[in-house]
Amino acid sequence: MIRAIACLAIATTQLAFAASALAQHDPGARVRELERVIPELLEHAGVPGLSAAIVADGEVFWSQGFGVRSTETGAPVTPETVFEAASLSKPVFAYAVMQLVERGAIDLDRPLAEYLPYDDIEHDQRYRQVTARLVLSHSSGFPNWRPRGGQLTINFDPGAKFSYSGEGFVYLQRVVEQLTGEPMHTFMKRTVLEPLGMTHSSFVWEERFESNVALGHDEDGTVREKNKPELGNAAWSLQTTGPDFARFLSAVVEGRGRGLAAGTVQAMLTPQSEVDDGVTWGLGWGLQESEVGRGFWHWGHNSGYRAYTLTYPSARYGFVFFANSNNGMLLLDALLSHAVSGSHPAAAWLDYESYDSPKRVVRNLLEQTIRMEGVEAGIVRYQQLEHEYPAEAFEEDMLNSLGYRLMRAELLDAAIAIFRLNVEVYPDAFNTYDSLGEAYMERGELDLAIQNYEKSVKLNPENTNGVQMLERLRKMKKGGG
Predict the structure, then answer these.
(1) Can you give the pLDDT at residue 257?
(2) Which of 214, 235, 440, 449 is deepest in the core (most CB within 10 A)?
(3) Taking the alpha carbons of 385, 387, 388, 391 in that order, is the dihedral positive or negative?
(4) What's the pLDDT score for residue 24?
């Protein structure tokens, strides 16, 4: 009897804490606030469309679409609109991997090479130390992605430290496909998507998505051609909706459907790798510690799409959003402030620029001036703005990103002028010379390109891009190019 009373007391305390935490979030008030501010935020940030959802008390509490799927068609975003989840694919795949762990089909700490040797990295035998645990906690030693057309490498001894890697998930995907005897997207549909009711989701493109898909957009609002993956990729290829992903968050919190045991979920949400102050990595999930407790989170970044999710399991409360623009993360701080209580160390670690940051305001004013009045007027405007905005608005990367915007707009002369200004303002920064060298190369001025890349590498001998570009340029010059 005493034990039963003690257990009841513990359970009552846990329920009271969860209720208190949920009250902190107050989902009804959060929804009203989001519905009020999101349309205005989209306009300020230059984001065409967004899908958002909230999980409250472990259930999908709210989902809504805002804005348009495409600036060309003006078709509205609805809750059923399909977005690219980008790296939010990773925790969904990790959830399925942990099902295999529960069944004994894979051991978290057994080297993956014992299941499937990996020809792509046979030249570095350290890969034989890589395990599923190291992949899921981003401490495998693999880079995020190998250079396009280049060789896969290992950057440090597996397990030594945290380093985010999509390549690790690709290797683990191949192991899972070997063990299950089926393509990853089929395995995911069978073990996660269908059991959890994620009926508008797939790791490969399906024609049924065509009628309600959000197209990606560049920073300037240009519509991008939709990537329609025929082969699933565990790191980035999930196509999904706000409500579907909220169902997944609910499953992690509540263990719904053919899910995971509570102990397995707890293992996923236990720190494995140290990342930053208040930020660690579990198994497939980023973790953050705040005054509200421990939350699990992830972010997504595909060309034309951005996404973010954060859930506090003790409160059984979570939030997710998908945006169809490269500008999507300009909204991150504002959306979190309206959607989720507490501080956000993970967002601070990501350090995305906010839509209302002085740096963005200055860059936009300069670009507008250059496009309307020319680059000389833009430089005069720069000097004027220095007296109107704080110093943080004029950090090195502001002019650098402006230069690349002008390059993408085929305003090459203006871009070179801006890169040259950045070199004058930051003469000891290696990246300013690297960017100026790239612009000169684009214009065919190889000698000037070489000179600037040489300065960049002299300032930073570890600038591998500069070293590679110098080798390429010297070959071009030697060949009479």
Answers:
(1) 54
(2) 214
(3) positive
(4) 65
Amino acid at 297: W
The CA R_g of the chain, rounded to the nearest whole Å, is 24
Contacts for 394 with CB less than 8 Å, ≥ 6 apart: 359, 362, 386, 425
- The sign of the dihedral angle between the CA atoms of 238, 242, 247, 253 is positive
Q: What is the dihedral of CA 260, 263, 269, 270, to 10 degrees?
A: -150
Both structure tokens of 379 = 């430089």
Angle at 60 between CA 57 and CA 64, to 5 degrees: 135
The pLDDT of residue 1 is: 35
Q: Supply 14's token pair.
A: 């846990």
Q: Which long-range contacts (CB under 8 A, 24 or more apart) does 57-61 make?
A: 57/22, 57/316, 57/317, 58/250, 58/253, 58/254, 58/316, 59/250, 60/243, 60/246, 60/247, 60/250, 61/27, 61/31
Residues of the chain with pLDDT under 50: 1-22, 481
pLDDT at residue 35, rounded to an integer: 98
pLDDT digits 0-9 by tens, 2-35: 333 333 333 333 334 444 444 567 999 999 999 9
CB 328 within 8 A of CB 350: no
Q: Which residue has the tokens 């140290």?
A: 274
